[in-house]
Amino acid sequence: MFMNFRRIHKCQVMQLLTTCMVLCVVMVCWDELDHHVVSHMRSYSYRYLVNSYDFLNSSFNISSNHHRKDGSNDVDGRLVNYQYLFNHPGKCGGGDGKSRDDVLLLLFVKSSPENFERRQAIRDTWGNESFVRAEQGATVRLVFALGVHPDVGQRSRVQSALMQEDHIYGDLIQQNFLDTFHNLTAKLILQFHWGHKYCPQARFLMSADDDIFVHMPNLVKYLRQLLSKKSEAKDLWVGHVHRGAPPIRRKDSKYYVPYDLYPWPSYPDYTAGAGYVVSGDVAAKIYQATLVLNSSIYIDDVFMGICAKAMGVSPQEHGYFSGEGKAPYHPCIYYHMITSHGHTTDVHSLWQAATDPTVYSNSRGFMGNLYCTVKRVMLLCLPYYQNTYSCMAAFT
């Protein structure tokens, strides 16, 4: 038996080259692999096996000496008491000695100063207070939470435009902090402090981004169902829940959190900040937490989770609250939709399609339910749409 040494040599060379290529790919992609695999494994181990986050109360007490990246905290970590530039204390009634309105939902939309078109689209569609009152018989109060434009050169022009906008609509709540990503926690605190002072009677409070779509008829129906079961209208924090999420340590990510700011491998559970709802009692608890907890965490979703955990509140998953993704466009989805994220140019058309009366008529009856269940399985249980609704939502 003769051996072909040339052939063996060629095989060894190919094996060596292949091994080198694989090693190069692993080295180049190691940060991504570490973030998506190793970090999540450590995070889940920490969440489920090691710790119950009892450290939060002591570590994030207001006396802790943490500082925000942009330096807007004072020495003890407490947020500055920012001045109101636009405010409407009587939005929920109670101004000038008047009685307070019976508010089902206080709707806070986080918006950037320059996003006039997004705010206008919301006013015209799902945030239209008059529509909700006329069609659902519910009182919803819409306000927009803003800081000031971060560009000094554009600030004066933008403020003049905001002044005109607020004069027409009377729904801007603005404080004197820079409207940047690293001040989102300041915007979250603005919402709960304003709600506590000027609209404490609201049964529910919703926080939403200005690129979200809310199916208001479905949301109102859902909230009324909760009120009919009084026990379920308490201790409520509902949305798209992130469980055991690890801090992102890659410095090129805008969600980067350094170890000295949050040294633990897992965040407490929290809902996606794109859109979530809390009951009035939970809103009051979050307000109290913001008074005693350090607000150095600039990711507002995570800070909300820290406040809630410290107050003994846990988030609840709802299949039709979207995460960071956009929900499928289909009537069988609209029938159950609460929120969908990532809508900046199609809000009017989606509102018209989602609230069309035929959506409900076509989904009724045995055949209608069967068809829509099959359609939702095809849309939600295949890897076409990520981070919107789970496959389980197809069967609800």
UniProtKB/TrEMBL annotation:
Keywords: Glycoprotein, Glycosyltransferase, Golgi apparatus, Membrane, Signal-anchor, Transferase, Transmembrane, Transmembrane helix. GO terms for cellular component: Golgi membrane. It is found in: Golgi apparatus membrane. It holds the Pfam family Galactosyl_T. One of its GO terms (molecular function) is lactosylceramide 1,3-N-acetyl-beta-D-glucosaminyltransferase activity. Belongs to the glycosyltransferase 31 family. This is Hexosyltransferase. It comes from Cottoperca gobio. The lineage of its organism: Eukaryota, Metazoa, Chordata, Craniata, Vertebrata. The gene is LOC115007538.
